[in-house]
Amino acid sequence: MSKLPGWLGTLGAELTRLGERLDERRAESEAEDDPLPADPPATEDTAPGKPAAKDDPAVDQVPAPPTYAPSVAARPDPVAAIPWGMRVAAEAGWRLLVLAGTLWVLMRVISAVQLVVLAFVAALLVTALLQPTVARLRSYGLPRGLATAVTAVSGFIIMGLVGWFVVWQVMDNIDTLSDKVTKGIDDLKNWLLDSPFHVTDKQINDVAKNLSDTVGTNTEAITSAGLQGVTVMVEFMTGALLAMFSTLFLLYDGKRIWQWVLKLVPAQARPGVAGAGPRAWRTLTAYVRGTVIVALIDAIFIGLGIYFLDVPMAVPLAVFIFLFAFIPLVGAVVSGALAVVVALVTEGVFTALMVLIVVLAVQQIEGHILQPFILGRAVRVHPLAVVLSVAAGGMIAGIGGAVVAVPLVAVTNTVVGYLRTYGQEESRRHSPPPHGATALDAAPTPAPGSPPEDSDDEAAPRTS
């Protein structure tokens, strides 16, 4: 028991020293973590130019500052890291995707209501053809309703009479045509047997048998095609009625319809669209009237040539040539080929060659003289644009699409050209007036030989 107080005293002393060591280490760690202390006030020992005392604790605790600060490069903005060309391509790319999506949706909507769209476009074409007649009748003093009724009824009666005359000619000459076709096939067979192509009778009979077998095996397909033809005729009659009613309303109330369409356009773009509309209508009118005149000339001269060559059904073939003339490029080839084939089957090779010469001559005159003279510069479209537009229209909407493709391209060309010029004039009108050296550069240069200005006031450029 006598040793217990000494042992306790030793333990207390050791704990005291351990606590002092912990306090010293805590103070050292806090001194390392704390920022550099402010400079102490200058004293005699720490005055400028006098070295610090060796026993000063601040010398041991505060390290000397580094001679340079390390520079850390900041990360660039991701937008700035992308090259300029890639950014431009991306901006143009997503805008093109939006336009492509819009066009795709628009084409889907048009294909869903294709009959209505084609009927309305046909009404626009007929209205462009008949509207000058309505304007002329109104200039003679007729009311708008009476002028519209007279023009529309007269136009529909003329088209109906032409259609009835064509059907009558076909039905009247169908027997003669059948006999001539049979005789022409026999003549063609004899010509092939005597020709230098060394065609034998067995080969001709094999071809005829293959044709007969093909017709026999595809009887169901031919029947379904006939039923589909009935459906097409019903759709055609429906579209014709829609086009007739649309034509009547466009002739009678076209101005109000155009004003209503302008209200759907945003206010900022309304002046430009209002100026482009009449120019587009003049282009469409010039195209339709010029195409009708050219088609009529083609039908008359080719029809006369076919008639004088004693080819049967000259009048129906002439009407067919007139209708197919509304399809640029393709229509002339198809109608001319049909006339040549009919002449070959009914009258022989020599008559077919003469018909081919007549068709080619008339088409050359049309392409180099009639179209540039009648259509003029108002609807001039590049031949490549004509080919591509006809092909695209035919793929999208068949014959109707091929008919409306070229006038649509012509109208679009007129509208885009006017809007571009209108935009340039608007930007020039709202731009600030030139001044200083710019005003001197913008001042009009006098023409050579013009008399000099007399006074300085007259020579000063006008900036207003």
TrEMBL record:
The organism's place on the tree of life at top rank: Bacteria
Disordered: region residues: 19-71, 424-464
Transmembrane segments: 146-167, 232-252, 286-308, 314-334, 341-365, 385-411
Record's bilayer topology term: Multi-pass membrane protein
Keyword terms of this UniProt record: Cell membrane, Membrane, Transmembrane, Transmembrane helix, Transport
Localization, UniProt: Cell membrane
Database matches in InterPro entries: AI-2E-like
Low complexity bias spans: 41-51
Pfam families, per the entry: AI-2E_transport
Main location class: membrane
Compositionally biased spans, kind Basic and acidic residues: 19-29
UniProt similarity note: Belongs to the autoinducer-2 exporter (AI-2E) (TC 2.A.86) family.
Name of the protein this chain belongs to: AI-2E family transporter
Organism listed in the record: Streptomyces castrisilvae
